[in-house]
Specification:
With 182 residues, the protein is mostly helical. The chain has seven helices and no strands.
Length: 182
């Protein structure tokens, strides 16, 4: 009779261990999926940037340094490999795009250009999707990190090498409005 109780206890513990492990794997995969959604929206934004730069070049040719910064920021993201590197590169690109749109205010012909307006609208729509994707990602990361911090899941997580994920944070420089001076 004692061996049956011991067997039941072992089976219950094994089922709990397997279930806990599987829930951590599922949560980690949700985090990866959420980041991939951000990546998809950012790729859409990056695909719009060359057209935007070319349109602005025609009207604001003496803003060469700013246009080079936009292009360099876009390349920085494309060369980033880790989520942390991508987050930093995205913050840099967001900041340079804000400056570009602030500078465009000084060029009425540019603002009136249909291509520029369409690109600006497309970028705004994409930025909204990026913001939503970031929020979803951060919510997903928070749920995953919570699982890794609460008892007894934290024991299983550490046994199998699960690590907390980083939240997608906005760079302090990207939070401030750009200053444009002529």
């Amino acid at each position: 009779m004692g061996w049956i109780i011991a067997l039941v206890v072992v089976v219950v513990i094994a089922i709990w261990l397997i279930g806990t492990y599987n829930s951590l794997v599922q949560a980690r995969n949700k985090v990866r999926n959420a980041f991939a959604q951000i990546d998809t929206q950012l790729q859409r934004r990056f695909d719009l940037i060359p057209n935007l730069v070319e349109t602005v070049k025609g009207y604001a040719s003496h803003e060469k340094e700013l246009l080079e910064n936009v292009t360099a920021s876009r390349s920085g993201y494309m060369n980033a490999h880790t989520p942390g590197e991508k987050m930093a590169a995205d913050n840099q690109l967001t900041s340079t795009l804000k400056t570009l749109f602030a500078v465009s205010e000084n060029y009425p012909e540019l603002k009136a250009n249909a291509n520029f307006s369409k690109l600006q609208d497309d970028l705004k729509g994409t930025e909204d999707k990026v913001a939503f994707s970031r929020q979803f990602y951060n919510d997903t990361v928070t749920r995953f990190n919570d699982k890794l911090q609460v008892f007894p899941t934290n024991i299983i997580g550490s046994m199998f090498g699960f690590k907390e994920e980083e939240l997608f944070k906005t760079d302090e420089a990207a939070k401030t409005a750009p200053k444009v001076q002529f």
